[in-house]
């Protein structure tokens, strides 16, 4: 079969699937939800301003996507592929292409919120939906940093930017891999304490200026630090700053978790001694 025939067959399959989804959805739904209805039934509280802004935008694509009969998981796959493809175009080193690629990458975060809205509206919750979401972030964000490093290298021809990109990518991935997990511990008492260590150690759970700084630096947020850095032609400085910050954040996380673990261990040891003392007094 020729390549042209394969393309036509794939196109027909996609068109047939789309028409089939629309037909199935329209048969069971005479009226699509309005924005007001969506916000009333599928809203979710968000902490920071940038997340609330993205969340408000996410309701608009939800309506046509519901009409097309797409599932939340299908929308998740769409935004993951959109981020992976757009990240690749950062490697060109061409200013306008890099700006557009980053905008598309960050607009996919709107769809990331849209899939949650669709799931809450249709009550179509899925364990694999959350799984896909984590896969998307763990794939797309480090790829964005790596592709930015290649693009900056093509502009300045200095290997220091490839090294910086490597530091940023490795620090990002180690941050995720080394974040403490209660499932590492068999003792139920330890697990409960570790959950508190985990929650209190995360930067996004902080308040005030620290929380705002975290939100402004997040790779997928609209109009974040990376966006303005690339827009004003400082992609190289932007990459270096992210490399330094991700490395510092990795060190902060490891040190914070270690200190909190020591405090937890001291508290649990003291509690055990107190229980043993009470038990001994009763026995005597």
Please write out the topology.
Blueprint lengths: L2 H26 L6 H8 L6 H19 L4 H17 L6 H28 L4 H30 L3 H18 L10 H14 L7 H9 L7 H7 L3 H49 L1
Helix pairs in contact: 3-5, 4-5, 4-6, 6-7, 7-11, 8-11, 10-11
Q: How many strands, which pairing sense, and closed or not: the largest β-sheet?
A: none
Mean pLDDT reading: 84
The ordered H/E elements are HHHHHHHHHHH
CATH architecture: Up-down Bundle
The name of the CATH topology is: Four Helix Bundle (Hemerythrin (Met), subunit A)
Specify the structural class: mainly alpha
β-strand percent reads under 5%
Helical amount among residues, as a percent range? over 70%
The number of E-state strands comes to 0
Radius of gyration of CA atoms, rounded to a whole number: 24 Å
The CATH H-level superfamily is CDP-alcohol phosphotransferase transmembrane (TM) domain
**Count, helices:** 11
CATH class bucket = Mainly Alpha
Silhouette = globular
Number of domains: 1
Distance between termini? 89 Å
* Low-confidence parts: 23-28
Features of this protein?
Four Helix Bundle (Hemerythrin (Met), subunit A), mainly alpha, 284 residues, globular, single chain, 11 helices, 79% helix
């Amino acid at each position: 079969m020729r390549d042209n025939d394969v393309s036509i067959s794939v196109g027909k399959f996609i068109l047939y699937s789309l028409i089939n989804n629309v037909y199935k959805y329209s048969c069971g739904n005479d009226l699509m939800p309005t924005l007001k209805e969506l916000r009333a039934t599928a809203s979710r509280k968000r902490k920071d301003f940038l997340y609330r802004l993205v969340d408000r935008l996410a309701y608009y694509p939800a309506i046509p996507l519901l009409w097309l009969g797409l599932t939340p998981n299908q929308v998740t796959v769409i935004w993951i592929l959109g981020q992976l493809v757009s990240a690749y175009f950062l490697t060109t080193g061409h200013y306008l292409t890099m700006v557009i690629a980053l905008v598309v990458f960050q607009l996919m975060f709107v769809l990331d919120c849209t899939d949650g809205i669709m799931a809450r509206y249709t009550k179509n919750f899925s364990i694999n939906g959350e799984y896909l979401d984590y896969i998307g972030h763990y794939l797309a964000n480090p790829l964005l940093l790596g592709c930015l490093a290649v693009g900056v290298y093509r502009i300045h021809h200095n290997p220091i930017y490839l090294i910086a990109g490597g530091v940023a990518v490795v620090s990002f991935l180690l941050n995720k891999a080394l974040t403490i997990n209660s499932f590492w511990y068999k003792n139920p008492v330890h697990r409960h304490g570790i959950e508190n260590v985990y929650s209190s150690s995360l930067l996004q759970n902080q308040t005030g200026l620290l929380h705002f700084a975290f939100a402004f630096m997040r790779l997928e947020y609209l109009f974040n630090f990376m966006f303005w850095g690339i827009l004003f032609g400082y992609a190289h400085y932007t990459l270096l700053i992210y490399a330094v910050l991700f490395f510092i954040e990795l060190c902060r996380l490891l040190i914070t978790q270690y200190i909190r673990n020591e405090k937890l261990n001291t508290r649990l040891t003291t509690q055990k001694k107190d229980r043993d003392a009470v038990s001994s007094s009763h026995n005597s």
